[in-house]
Amino acid sequence: MGYRKGYYRKDGTYVQGHYANNRSKSFSTKNNNGCLILILFFTAISSIISCSESSDSVEKTSNSGSNSNCPTKTCGDFTSRSQAQATYDSNKNCYKNLDADGDGIACESLK
């Protein structure tokens, strides 16, 4: 936009000065290709970052001792506390859900 000075028309009438759009039509239609490229770039970067964070968390869980090969056992699977304790002692990382309070005694509700 720019200020257009007042001028006289061919018929002799005066046109008051005013603000007018001085840009050409081809310039005024915005070219959004640059914005589209930036959006695609940031989307690609964010997806790469999110994928690397999820793989890091998978590695952390596999290294922290929670093994996906562990069978799922609950206290209901045992008839006595001694059986549950023997299973818990065989692999404490796999069967940590048998010791709810973390005191080293498995299935305290069983007799």
Question: Major sheet: size, sense and barrel closure?
Answer: 2 strands, antiparallel
Give the termini separation. Answer: 88 Å
Query: Please, how many helices?
Result: 3
Q: What is the strand content?
A: 5-15%
Following the backbone from N to C, one meets helices and strands in this order, namely: EEEEHHH
Low-confidence stretches: 59-65
Helix content estimate: 40-55%
What is the general shape?
rod-shaped
Spatial order of strands in the largest sheet: 1-4
For the CA atoms, what is the radius of gyration?
37 Å
Mean pLDDT: 76
This entry's quaternary arrangement is single chain
Q: How many strands in all?
A: 4
Structural class of the secondary structure composition?
mainly alpha
Protein name: Excalibur calcium-binding domain-containing protein
InterPro entries: Excalibur_Ca-bd_domain
Pfam family, one: Excalibur
Organism: Flavobacterium cheongpyeongense
Polypeptide structure, described:
The protein has 111 residues and is mostly helical. 41% of the residues lie in helices and 9% in strands. The chain is built from three helices and four strands, in the order ββββααα. The protein has a two-stranded antiparallel ribbon. Strands 2-3 form a two-stranded antiparallel ribbon. The chain is rod-shaped. The relative contact order is 0.09. About 6% of the residues have low confidence. This is Excalibur calcium-binding domain-containing protein. InterPro entries: Excalibur_Ca-bd_domain. It holds the Pfam family Excalibur. It comes from Flavobacterium cheongpyeongense.
